[in-house]
Amino acid sequence: MSLRSQSRITLLAISCYLAFTPFASAFDDDDLLSIFTDSQTSSQGDFNFSTTTATDLSGSNWGFGVDESAVYHAALKHQQAGNPANREWELRVGQGGQIYSIRSEVGEIVPPQSLGRPFVDEVFQSISVDTSLRDNGGEAAFYHQAGYYSDGNNVSQPSYAPLLASGAVDANSYSTLSLAVQADTNSTPQQPGGLLNYQRTRDLGDGVIEITHSIYNFGENTVDFHNLPWGGVRKTEFDNMLVSNPGGGFTDRTILGFGDFENQVELAENTGGWAAFTEGTSGTDRGIAYVFGDTDTHIGEDWQTNRSSWRWGDGGGDIIGLPVRNFNVGTFRRFIEVNPGDLFESRYFVVLGDVDHIESTIDARDLVGAALYDKVSIREEDSEVLSYRIVDDNGSISVMETAVGQPSDFGTYAKPVNGSQPMFLFEDASGRQFLSVDPYALSEFPYDGETVYKGLLGFVLPSEIADGDGPYVDLNSLLPGDYYLDTNPDVTIFALRGTAAVPETSPLILMIFGLLHSALRRKK
């Protein structure tokens, strides 16, 4: 952590202490988001990449009654030197971490949304499924990165997956961490599922975007089917499907209804590792390619249960030649068992440009070979440690992050150590804050307004993993019961043992320090 970051945390912590409010906004997200494996694909070309979380809406035409400001979280922009055609783009990230807008020379590519499910289905996102529920006579649980369907009953307004961390951690990139939620509020309740969705979107220049998803399962059930990604385009822009051939070239494939399953699924090994929605088949026709790879490198592992495949189709229908749902779906499907305690990573690429550029760029930069997937093992010694101090002001408890090397009461792992549990900070409808490893400790359903997710404080260990004689402390004994919500008393949760707390600083000294800091800011 830089000196600048330490200073920011210290000042904000003092500010929070003076106000006697729990410390939330100053938690440093950088360590939480630094979990992705290194990419061997380097950036190329002369370009400028920028990000902002200030309001910067796309200006695109969305569906009737759809409000983009309700979903907006961040804007990512690429400007290419020399302004070559089809290379510049703008991408917008939603509150669940989903990519809900991609603008290029042709205009908006992502579909205009439908009223019942705005920005939770016709977007680029990760979807994971627990199919065992369906096999046992129930409905499969579909965990969306984006959020919930509006059903007019449980969810009457757009409601997105809780965003727990975000930021521009790596060069030319933007990362998010969100709590996956079941999209259909009428199906299986959220528990006992528990998935975290990490996403890093990285600008590689010349129309190439690398997108990496990491899925951590902290719940009780296995998810065994994944759309990585699920996404699509406006068929009024791109109504051709080009599927690459092994050895080079592509075949123009028919786009039928998405339910026409047999005719619109191709095993990855029977392709050249990519597919594209385009205006047509000539070299100058523009489009967007998904590069997913052509080899199932882990088909011999017991956790990959079937071969990966590309599926596409028309996600809507036409009336008098007009699209009812302006949505051509494209999704890459992986049959991977992500068991409780597992971290699974998958990487693909998006390539923008004309057909000639798409083909030549994928080949020259070996993007097919760089598309990967694997399970990742994180040991305790592999993770950075986040340190916290407990402040008790006449029974009002708050937790503050401390700078590196400073005394603390307890610590957590910044990365999801195998088998660990995420520790959530949230508040109830009255504004009172709590800590728990159960994201549904206040309410079974995040969309009901009873729980406001403030962030993630890192990862802690359940008793079956932690060694009671090790450098750990029982959270239940450390934190008051009305602040730490222990929803499973049969499992002891351990954090890292901290050092002695810093002696309380008198309010007068804190006030003087605050005045000096304000004076310095005005001087600058």
What is the count of distinct domains? 2
In this structure, how is the largest beta sheet organized?
Answer: 10 strands, antiparallel
Q: What ranges have pLDDT less than 50 throughout 5 or more consecutive residues?
A: 1-26, 501-524
Number of beta strands: 34
- Percent strand equals 35-45%
| 3D shape | globular
Distance between the amino and carboxyl termini: 24 Å
Total helices: the number is 7
The level of helicity is 10-25%
Mean pLDDT: 86
Rg result: 24 Å
Classification by helices and strands: mainly beta
List keywords for this structure.
11% helix; 8-stranded antiparallel β-sheet; 524 residues; disordered N terminus; 2 domains; 10-stranded antiparallel β-sheet; mainly beta; globular
Describe this protein's structure:
This protein has 524 residues and is mostly beta strands. The chain has two domains: 3-31 and 380-508, no CATH class; 36-85 and 96-375, no CATH class. It has seven helices and 34 strands. Strands 10, 11, 13, 14, 16, 17, 19, 20, 25 and 26 form a ten-stranded antiparallel β-sheet that branches. A hairpin with a 4-residue loop joins β3 and β4. α1 crosses α7 (507-523). It is globular. The two termini are 24 Å apart.
Give a quick precis of the structure.
By secondary structure, the chain is mainly beta. The protein has 7 helices and 34 strands. Strand 2 and strand 3 form a beta hairpin.
Please render the helix and strand layout as text.
Blueprint: H1 3-19, H2 30-33, E1 47-52, E2 72-80, E3 89-94, E4 99-104, E5 107-108, E6 125-130, H3 132-135, E7 141-144, E8 147-148, E9 159-160, E10 163-167, E11 173-179, E12 181-182, E13 195-205, E14 208-217, E15 225-233, E16 240-244, E17 250-253, E18 265-267, E19 274-278, E20 286-291, E21 309-314, E22 318-319, E23 322-323, E24 328-334, E25 343-354, H4 355-364, H5 367-370, E26 373-375, E27 385-393, E28 396-401, E29 410-413, E30 421-427, E31 433-436, E32 452-462, E33 472-474, H6 475-478, E34 493-497, H7 507-523
Antiparallel strand pairs: 1-2, 2-3, 3-4, 4-5, 6-7, 6-15, 7-12, 8-9, 10-11, 11-13, 13-14, 14-25, 15-24, 16-17, 16-19, 18-21, 19-20, 20-25, 21-24, 22-23, 25-26, 27-28, 27-29, 29-34, 30-31, 30-32, 32-34, 33-34
Helix pairs in contact: 1-7
